[in-house]
Amino acid sequence: MILCSNPKAQYRAHKPEIDKEISKVLESGQYILGEQVQSFEREFAQYLGVNFAIGVGSGTEALHIALKAAGLGKGDEVITVSHTAIATVAAIEVAGANPVLVDIESDFYTINPNKLKKAISKKTRAIIPVHLYGQPADLAPIASFARQHRIHLIEDCAQAHGAMYKGKRIGSWGNLACFSFYPTKNLGAFGDGGAIVTSSKKLANTCRMLREYGWSETKVSSIPGWSSRLDELQAAVLRVKLRYLDKDNESRMKLAAMYDTLLAETDLILPKKKARATHVYHQYVVRSERRDALRDFLMKKGIQTLIHYPIPVHLQPAYRGKVKTGGKLKETEHAANKVLSLPIYPELTQTQLRLVVKTIRAFFDQ
Ligand SMILES: Cc1ncc(COP(=O)(O)O)c(C=O)c1O
């Protein structure tokens, strides 16, 4: 079976180092918010070119905490997309704010900056662009829109660790940015994990308090908070994997370039790259008019594919008719019916990739 993503292959690739670090943590007796988390926070912030990183329990929690740290709550509106993981919208709702969903750019699957004007209202307090599939949203017009309207720019970086926009890492554009370390991500833990990054000392302090009962010092709650912490084992794993992130992203880019060449003659619509950004291919997403039949065919031949995402958030049973949209979501609904994510991860071999391509060709030649 060729998997779409394969976190076990990542473990195997770095097993001796990871095993050593895990056993050091187990022997240390310190399992929550200790030296490993502190070191990871420092190293990750340095890697991104920001001042602070705050490790938390998941990517969803990173967004929730970031929104609360920015002071958002009841009645506030947050502009984002419907073509994303449910988590982006779920975090806005959990924070007590209201999502306003706008359409994507059909070529890139990220938020369409031209749709922002229609979505803004007196209640808008933040915008969350999602760097989907590993490709940065078009941050220059989005950041200028956020500045002009004095609203927070909170990046959802869950799928694009290490990607750049105009030569600067994503995560360093917003006043807050959020990462997930779910195992299949470009930087993945062996369990749940997430981080908020920022260059503002004040926001960093608030995030740090919110993740642990609002404590300003042990057992003194200065603000109401809750508990969402990154653990020492995950931080130790992440520290090892962070050292290989750029190399792993290069492997993903090389595999994507191979797909680009070998699939060029097929009926598939291939992913397009933005000129001023790097795409780190968390997913390699193609479009096909015969998507479902192709997916079944590949599955029968032992090739796993996934759909990111089959039902846009505004059409999910939990949200249908209950969330505000900024205009029609035509491109979002079109993408949901046509997109297909092919296998891609740093350890995928060229032989496996050629087999995926050969099987796709066989489908179209039938
Ligand atoms: C775009 C996006 N945002 C947020 C999240 C939430 O991350 P987590 O699963 O760690 O809560 C994910 C991960 O699934 C994601 O892909």
Written overview of the protein:
The protein is of the alpha/beta class. It has helices spanning 7-13, 15-28, 35-48, 59-69, 86-94, 116-119, 139-148, 201-210, 232-242, 245-262, 291-300, 330-338, 350-365; strands spanning 52-56, 77-81, 98-102, 124-127, 152-156, 164-165, 168-169, 176-180, 194-198, 215-217, 220-221, 284-287, 324-325, 339-342. It has two domains: 7-242, Aspartate Aminotransferase, domain 2; 245-365, Aspartate Aminotransferase, domain 1, CATH 3.90.1150. An eight-stranded mixed β-sheet has the order 1-9-8-5-4-2-3-13, sandwiched between helices. It has a two-stranded antiparallel sheet with strand order 6-7. A two-stranded antiparallel ribbon has the order 10-11. Helix 5 links the parallel strand 2 (77-81) and strand 3 (98-102). The longest helix is centred in the C-terminal third of the chain and has 18 residues, at 245-262. It is globular and about 70 Å long. The mean pLDDT is 97. Pyridoxal-5'-phosphate (PLP) binds at residues 58-60, 84-85, 87-88, 130, 156, 158-159, 180, 182, 192, 194.
